[in-house]
Write a structure and sequence with these properties.
This protein has 245 residues and is mainly alpha-helical. It has one domain. It has 13 helices and no strands. Helix 3 runs antiparallel to helix 4 and helix 11 crosses helix 13. It is globular, with a radius of gyration of 18 Å.
């Protein structure tokens, strides 16, 4: 089992993975830390639903609206620049809320890395710290806002936030590893229905619900395979799915 899953990591953790994945967006702006992490965070917010559709939406946002300058876009954000940009649950007002709060985060409070780092070092959970920052500054936020930035207190898998952290913390051919306030051994697996189903087929997950308890169970089992880099097996899950269609 270990040999098989490690071989799948080697096969699928390659730069070829990037072009069809939302991680392509922070890779576009890797030369500047702020551009890279902002692009990664925004890409993670929209990374749900049909992959081709949300990647098309992200292309529109970064190329046409942000003019390929994510950091400048956030620092000088004004709602009118969005025109009628929306995606599924997220209305133009929801996106305006998120970006206005990010403007405050970068102009006054040190940016995304400082926010996540503060959460990591605090008694509160890291994800709760991040969501509390956004929730406390939101004004009449809609459903889309709370879908993009979900409440970890509700016990959900926090898949997109786990994915964003993987991109930022873990270093590899695909992941960028531009943050270093926490070890990659402490990352959690980004759990969606696809990963959950494959994990159960592989005997790595027994819990039936796809919630954060399942995230913990699966991550702990992956740590038994590689204590230092358990989340590399995210690529093996992808590869296993490709091989068993």
């Amino acid at each position: 089992m270990i040999t098989q899953i490690d071989e799948l990591v080697k096969t699928y953790e390659t730069t070829d993975f990037i072009k069809d994945d939302p991680i392509q967006f922070p890779h576009r702006y890797i030369k500047t830390k702020e551009d890279c992490e902002i692009a990664g965070f925004i890409a993670s917010l929209l990374a749900y639903g049909n992959r081709k559709v949300f990647i098309s939406k992200l292309n529109t946002l970064f190329e046409e609206i942000a003019q390929n300058e994510p950091y400048n876009f956030i620092l000088n954000f004004e709602p009118k620049i969005l025109n009628n940009f929306n995606y599924r649950f997220g209305t133009v007002e929801d996106f305006a809320q998120v970006f206005a709060i990010m403007r405050q985060l970068y102009s006054k409070d040190g940016g995304l890395e400082e926010l996540f780092k503060f959460g990591y070092n605090s008694k509160n959970s890291m994800f709760s710290t991040v969501t509390d920052y956004f929730y406390s500054r939101a004004e009449n936020a809609g459903q889309g806002f709370y879908f993009m930035i979900p409440n970890p207190q509700k016990g959900g898998a926090m898949k997109r936030m786990c994915m964003f952290l993987r991109w930022m913390i873990r270093k590899g051919p695909v992941d960028l590893g531009i943050w270093n306030f926490m070890p990659q051994s402490e990352l959690y697996i980004p759990l969606d229905t696809h990963v959950a189903r494959l994990s159960r087929e592989m005997g790595l997950l027994k819990r039936n619900s796809n919630d954060f308890k399942a995230v913990i169970e699966l991550t702990e089992n992956l740590r038994k395979l590689d204590p230092q880099d358990p989340i590399k097996y995210d690529f093996a899950m992808f590869g296993y799915g490709v091989n068993n269609k």
